[in-house]
Structures are given as C-alpha cells and as structure tokens.
Amino acid sequence: MGALTKGRYLSMAGLLLLVYCTVSVISKGTTGDAQPDALPSVQGTLPHFIQEPEDAYIVKSNPIKLHCRAAPALQIFFKCNGEWVHQNEHFSQEYKDLNTGLKVREVMINVSRQQVEDFHGPEDYWCLCVAWSHLGTSKSRKATVRIAYLRKNFEQDPQGKEVPINGMIVLHCRPPEGVPVAEVEWLKNEELLSSLTDDNIDTRADHNLIINEARLSDSGNYTCLASNIVAKRRSATATVIVFVNGGWSLWTEWSPCNVPCGRGVQKRSRTCTNPAPLNGGAFCEGMSVQKITCNAPCPIDGGWDEWSEWTVCSSQCEKQRSRECNSPAPRHRGKMCEGNSEATENCTDGLCTQSMDSTSDVALYSGLGAGIIAVAILVVAVMLYRKNHSEYGVDVIDSSALTGGFQSFNFKTTRQGNPLLLNSSMQPDLTVGRTYSTPLCFQDSTDKELFDPLPDIKVKVQSSFMVSLGVAERAEFHAKAPAETFPRDLSRDYSSTVDRRKKGLLTLNGPFSTCKEQLRTTGVFGHPGGRLMVPNTGVSLLVPHGAVAENMSWEMYMVINQGEASVQTLEGCEILLGPEVMYGPPGLDLFCPVAMTIAHCAEVDTENWNIQLKRKTQDSKWEEVMSVEEESTSCYCLMDSTSCHLLLDQPGSYALVGEPLTQAAVKRLKLAVFGSMEAGSMSYSLRVYCVDDTPHAFQGVVAAEKTRGGQLLEEPKMLPFRANTFSLQVSIQDVPQFLWSIKPFTTCQEFSFPQVWCSNQQPLHCAFSLERYSPATAQLSCKISVRQVKGHEQILQVYTAVAETEKESVPFFMQTDCTITSQTGPKAFKIPLSIRQRICATFDTANAKGKDWQLLAQKLHLDRNLGYFAKQRSPSAVILSLWEARHQDTADLDSLASALEEIGKIHSKSSPKDQDEPESDFNHIQAGSVYATGKLTNQTTEDSAPEYTG
C-alpha cells in the first residue's frame, strides 16, 4: 500500500512539473520578445549546478548524505537507479546569491546501507539530481554509492629471507580485498618505512617493498600494513637477515725462523675478519696459515790470534804483549773469546827499584783517607735506614700475615670473580651484597659457630645472594684465618644451618628442594602473635601482639597462587606487579589488622602509574580495594621501592595491580642466563630469561632450570622496561668464530611488547644454540645483549667451561632455605613487648601539645592516610606493626630510636619545667633505652622459648 502511494505521489509530481514546464514554454513562445523583463531571475539560462553529488562509501551502518545545489532552479529532485526519490525524503533550502541575484536551491538526501544492499542491478547503486527552471531541466553527474569493507586475510603475505650484504631485497605483499582499495604501508620493527627519507628503499604501486642494496641495518622484522576507511590489517611478519660472508685480512709479516741454527720453518697468518662473517655468513675458504722452510746460520765462536811480540821494557820495569779475537771472529751470535787480550810481565826479574817523591806520597794517603770516610758515611746511613723502618714496619706488613698466613682471597681484580657463577674460574668477591631486601629465612642466633672454622678445614663459602636464590657455591677454599676473616654482615644470611650441616645436608651435590610445596605455609598463632613467611619470595605476614584474644589460637595460612586465573581476569592495560597472595582462614577474628608484605617490580612514580590493591571476590572476580595514592579507612598501603606493605582487616586473596598512565611508566625486569650441554653432544644451549624483578618470579626460573640441569652463568641484572610499546630484543655477540658456530636465525631474538609487559610474573625465555667445531673446545665466552627498542640495554658477560663431566649439576636450592616458615612469640618482633607497651601507652593518650600518635607517625615517615590509624583501637600499635613489617630485614632499631630521640628533644624544649607531668614518660622511651633494649633483644628472645613450625 505504501509503495502504491509513493508511486502515485511521484507520478502526480512529475505530471504537474511537466504541465508547468509546457505552459512556461508556450507562454514564452507566445510572448516572443515582447516581454524580456518578465523573468528577471532566469536571464535566459538553463539551471547550472553549483554542487553535484559525489561518490560515497557507506561505513558499517552509517547512512551517507548526497548534496546537490543549482541556480537558477525552481525545483530539484534526486533520481536513484532510474526512479524518482519521494519528495518527503528531500531536505531542501533556498536562498538568493547576492552577487548574481539568482535563486540558489540546495537539496540533500540520505542513503542507507539497507537501500544499497536491497538494490540488485547491473551496476553500482547510483543517484543524480534533476533541476527545473523556466527554460527547462538540467541533470547532474551520476554519483555511485558503495558499501565499504576490508577482508581480513592478505592475498599474499611477505616471506622472510636471508640476503647477502649489498644484495637486493624484494618483499611481496598483496593486500586483502576491499572497497575502496586498501592502501599499503610497510613497517620495520614496528616503525613506518618511507621511501622519501631513504633513497635505497622503493615502495612501488604494486605494493612490493624493494631495498636496492641490503645493509646490515636492514635486518629486522617487516610487516605489510593495509588500510582503508573501514579498518587496518597487518600481514604476517617477515624476518629479513642480512648476512656477511667472511673475507681474509692481509697476510702478516713472516715470523723469524723457529730454530736458532740450521733448517727451520717460518710462518705467516691471516684472519677471516675483512669482513668477519655475520648473521650466518660463510666462513673464508682457504688456509689461514702459510709455512716455508728457512735456514738459520749457526753461531761461530771467536778464536784468539797469535800473541804479538813483547814490547820494550818500560820505566816501570814492565813489558807487554797483546792478541785479538779474530781466528775466527765471532759471528751469528757466537761467543767471544775467553781470557785476556793483553799480558804484562816484569822484565828485570824483580830487581827494578824506584824512588817515590813526596808528591806521590801525599796523593796516595789522600786517596786512602777519602775512601775510609766514604765507607763510614755509608755504614751510618744503612744503620739509620734500618732503625727508621723498624719503627713502622708493623704497618706495612700485610695484615693477613697477622691472622695465620696470607689468604687466597682477591677482593679487587680487573674483573672480579663472581660468586654467583656456578663454574666461576676466579675467586669470589665476598663483599657482594644482597640482591633483594625482602626477607629470606628467619635468623637463628645459635649459628655463630658457622663462622668459627677450625684451622685447615674446608669451608664452603656462599655469598648472600646465593643464599637468597638457594644456589650453592662450587668453589672451595682452604680457610686458615679466624672468623674475623669473613665479613660480619654475611652472618645473617646463614640462618639455622649449623645443625643441618652436622647432619650432612649442606652438601654441594645434595638433593634438590625446589620449595614448591612451601608456597603454602601455615602456623598456629595465639595472643603473642608472630610471623608467617614464604622463603625466597618476598612475601610475609605479621600478626601483631594482641591481635588474637587471650586463651585462643588460630591456625593461619598464607598461599601464593601460581595459577593463571588471576591473569585472565585482569582487564585493559592492568598488569600484576607482584604475586597474588591469599591469607586465611576466612572466618578469622582479630582485634587489630595484620601486616602483609608483597614484593613488586614497579618503579613507583605517581605521575606514570596508577597502582591499585585488588581483592578476589567469591565468584573469582577482582574488585578494587583502594588506590595506593588515595586515602582509605578500610585498608592501608605503603609503597617502598621494592615492596608493598599492607594493613588488612579481612582475609582473602590480594594482588597489586598497575595501570600505566604514560609511556614513561617503568617496570623492572630481572635478566639471567643459564647454560647446559647435552651428554655426548657438541651442542651447547644458552637460555636467557626475562622475568619481573620479584623474588617469587625468579624462583620460577630457578625451578625450571633445576629440571634441565642448567647452570647460572652470570650474575642476574636488572633492566628498566618502559611502557612505550616497543619490543625487547635479545642478541648474542662476540662468539669465537673459529671455535663455535651459531645455528641460523638465532643471533637475535625478540619478545613483543605485550609478551613482556603482560607477562604477569610468568617467566619468558629465549634460547641460543651453539655448536663447537671440536671436542677439545672447553671454554665459551660471549656477550648477551638485552635491550628494549628505544630504551635501556644490559650486557650479560658469559665465560664458562663447557667440557663434559660426570659431576651432577650444582643445585639451585638447598634444604636449609626452606625449613622455617613460621615464628611465634616475642622472637618474631624487633621491638620488645615492654618497650612496645610503653610507647603505645604514651602516644595513644591525647595530648594538648601534639605529642600523640600523629607525631610518632610523622617521625617514622608514615604520616599519610592518618584517617586509617585514627579509627584503630590503638593507633600507635598499628603504626609500630607497620614499622615492623617495613624493617623486618634490619636487626637494629635505629630509625625508631632516632624518631623517639627527636620527639624527646621537642618535648624537652617545649616544656622544660613540666618534668612531673605524665608527658615525662617520653624520658623512659627515648633513644637510649631503645638502643640498650635492641642490644638485649637476642637474649630476651632466646629466653622466651619461641615456637617454630616447619
């Protein structure tokens, strides 16, 4: 019914227009030239178009608009596919052109996607305008309307290839079918290529990429990018490797003959370094050494001539004769003649006498006197020199001589020995500090005898970082010095090992213990409180004193979730900055919050990061608890450089999640290289790991390498990784070309940005496979370069012995690192209970002069989000719990003592006469008492008989 009405409307409108035009023509023919001014707006012209409809594309479901403008025009209608468009679908307006005085009419219609899809004709959907005036009609150009699209699959993807240097590179690309036809651009390592800036590059109309002369810098990953008004499509990535075939250098000069006398050999050599083969290029053909025979003249020793005749007897009654070394003369390094070349004899058989005048006597005695004086002066000088050196001789003696003999430790060398390397050939540097400041294992003061070795016994020395990784040191040293030879600060890294050492557990080739089962730790806590810890993960939980009601106890647990459920539920650009940690049980009833510590890998910067604490709900979804920069009364979050300290009231699963706000956001990566050689094989595998810089993430690497029998080859290093969307490249360099070969396509490998940025504590690694030419090759030295494109770079230096042995791989973990996970009672805390109670009693009481818990928080640098402390039953106790969690690595009370000392000074200045007021309690908790108490902490905790739960 609607179509019939529409057709009638169009027919009537056309009929009326036809009649109108006919009358106009008849009227014009009747009047002739008698009324030239009857139609001043027409001026004797047909309508002409100021704007004609243009071709258009429909994107998705958005309709397009066609415009038409003509003058002079009484009416304008659109005609699409040979049919008139209903006048109700026209949007028209009319105005007068001020310059010409003509009436200008503008018309617009909408064309929908449905109209175009419903049209089935021999050609594309088209529309044109028809304009009427008194003199007749004019038609515009046809405008086509097409539905825009772009297919997903390329008709031809570029293919990777290996090209010699200066060769031509041709990469073919045929974009997906689309309307309008897609335009093609080329990306190299995610950066746009342009032939305008590089004459060597030609991007032709057939979409191919041509590099006329390949350069080393042209190696990379190439991607074809097709785009039109609908979408962009990326082709598969083609890896191009530009290789260099080796070339011989110039010959060296001939060496000297290799024998001092007779027939020998001379050599000269050349190296395959002009250029050196790169990226799998062919090695030079031919000999690198040439030899020729040579004849070295033998040495001829000299011989004496005959003696000459004696000379005439002289006034001294002597005669002389001489001879020369010329029979033969010494040649070719021959020896000179032995003996004297001159001889003197008395020619009067001793009967010759002479008188000596006084002048000769004076000269003789003067010479003797001068000689005696010179000898005396020399003797006095030697005595003074010995006396002076005997006074300070103790200072210049090597101090090691005072401790029982010179030691073999070399603390300062050109390249220090690395105690982290399992097969280090150099002496270890015992001054290496901790890599992580997070807690590793609980300390036991009974282990002091570990540093008191008996004379001439073998002591296995471990650096603090090796203990944190659980890696045993391969090198052994004979220690003859007393305990002071070792740095004292290493003692805290040797915790609870003496008894196990006596039982034979501390061995180099003992059984592995990966601690995987220890990622869940439990303990029973009562009113005294305590700590839970997952060793070597940077995760711990502090249960404050008084958190559990008296005469009650709770079995509490802490678990690190190693599954990927938490990773899959994160949205957008959020990433995990540390492990997901759960503590419980769910119905836990505590009087004050617990303090949880989680290590993280973010370079904390409020301008570049939005860091949030999230908690998992019962339906395994994440909900935001708080932002670390916001204030909240339900939770407290303190961010340090490597750890986050949380005060929590509710049990559950928690995770630290970060969202980068700018491309300057940085997360830290830990880089490590491991190596292993298959038995009976010539191949050696280097594995480079890039993981988030947290102890827990690195523990996964160590666990994986344990199963492979890998060895840690270089001290792990940190790399700042920026959120700039650029990838991470790992390349191997400086491999000895005469000893080792690298399998193709492995000299440079790449992690995409999402792989690295969104790794979420999961280890990433790439492998380089090397093959030695000869079984006699026992050493490997090379460099591993890890760099972010347009970012930072780190170099890992590898120097290792690869000779096959029947020894087992050195374990990465030792059982001693995984034993103590729970500690209860006073020994779990740095602040003794009596001092803690006095501090709380003093600062929890409101004071008109501001000496309350807020001043304590300010002096301990915990003065943000004070609203959280204000709602607690004892704000001071919660502040001290947070201080305990933050300083759990340090065994001293320096920061707390300094804060109390400053508060005491403020008190003494503000109220010098009020010594009898309750405020004088500050005098009892000032720095002196805290220092003294700190020294007695070990004795106090030993007497308290703490409970250990393994």
What key attributes describe this structure?
single chain, 950 residues, alpha+beta, seven-stranded antiparallel beta sheet, disordered N terminus
Radius of gyration: 47 Å
Largest sheet: 7 strands, antiparallel
Alpha-beta classification: alpha+beta
Mean pLDDT: 75
Low-confidence segments: 1-42, 355-359, 389-440, 443-517, 805-817, 913-921, 932-950
Distance between the termini: 87 Å
Characterize the overall form: flat
What share of residues are in beta strands? 25-35%
Number of helices: 15
Q: Work out the helicity level.
A: 10-25%
Number of E strands = 51
Description:
With 950 residues, the chain is an alpha+beta fold. The chain has 15 helices and 51 strands. The strands form twelve sheets. Strands 28, 31, 32, 33, 35, 36 and 39 form a seven-stranded antiparallel sheet that branches. Strands 37-38-34-30-29-50-51 form a seven-stranded antiparallel sheet, with helices on one face. Helix 13 (894-910) runs antiparallel to helix 14 (927-935).
